From TrEMBL:
This is DUF402 domain-containing protein. Pfam families: DUF402 (PF04167). InterPro entries: DUF402, FomD-like_sf, Ntdp-like. GO terms for molecular function: hydrolase activity. It comes from Terribacillus saccharophilus. It comes from the Bacteria. Keywords: Hydrolase. Residues 39-150 form the DUF402 domain.
Amino acid sequence: MIHMKSLKYPDIPHYEWKGRLLKRTPEYVMVLCESGREMKHHTKNTTFTIDVRSIEYFFLKEGFTVAMEIEEGKIRSYYCNIAMPSMLDGNQLSFVDLDLDLVKGRNEDWVVVDEDEFEINSVKYGYPSELKEYALKSLDVLQKKINENSFPFDGSGLGIVKAYYPL
């Protein structure tokens, strides 16, 4: 098991959950999260039960995370956080969420959300201008990967999961 922790800038606990480590490379960590897992949401002071299975990628050198909801062996939706590169220390994985999200719901187009939250928090938490630029550049890189169907948007993650765990 691996314990994931999302932080708000600079290091404020946001939410945390657990999953199964599937793959670790110098570039990313791939995790399988089963339905029924608990997500402790510090910001909202509550715990949620997540009723979907997901493949989640945490990039160690790039500014985003990617979560793919899986149902009946297919990717049904995506939720991507713009973030500082993830950090892995033993079985503890953490990242600083920079508010901007890129999401694709079932049968929907990609949309950037929480731009207002990004602007509010950049003032509230004093984001340096370099950090704001980094977040916007990371969003551009992520959108390019999606448009080019490049990893992890090439479907390769499902093959890894299917090899070990039936979907």
